[in-house]
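WARN  no MSA supplied for this record, continuing single-sequence
INFO  ligand: zinc ion
INFO  echoing inputs
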Amino acid sequence: MTTSKFEPERFRSSAYLATIDSAAAPGHIHISESSLTALFREAETGYPLEICGLLIGCINNGNWLVHEIRPVANLNTDRAADRFQLDPTGYQTIDRELRGTENEIIGVYHSHPDCPAKPSPTDLDNAWESFAYPIISVCEGKTTEMLCWSVNTKNNRFQNVRIVKIA
Ligand SMILES: [Zn+2]
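INFO  complex generated
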């Protein structure tokens, strides 16, 4: 097996591999081309640091419908791509803003600078049930891939969520 410059050895460790379920998630994530463009731009602008933010929208029949993305400060300025710390004040402000609207926070995105778009054990530890977790891989400042994950609560592993682009 070759080791890619952008796949650090730890991503093949049993601890990392154990975060991923072989089955795909039953739900899909629906996201617009313009939201994707904004996500990639933010991930590239933040490089080589990890960026993070919230997905705003609604959950319908187990599918995540993203209406908006909102950057939130990452309090962890480490580029290690194995932990990020979403600013709780930013979270609370947005959560409060959404009260009484039909939108809610439905997920958390973050970038992995020079690392694959696969989850780390820390990502799993911090993941909430029913949230969608897109991870954007940014290599040498360019977005190479985005994968989305959600937790299967039966075995506490991430399942891959199919990304459906909408207009
Ligand atoms: Zn991560």
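The mean pLDDT is 93.
INFO  checksum written, moving to next record
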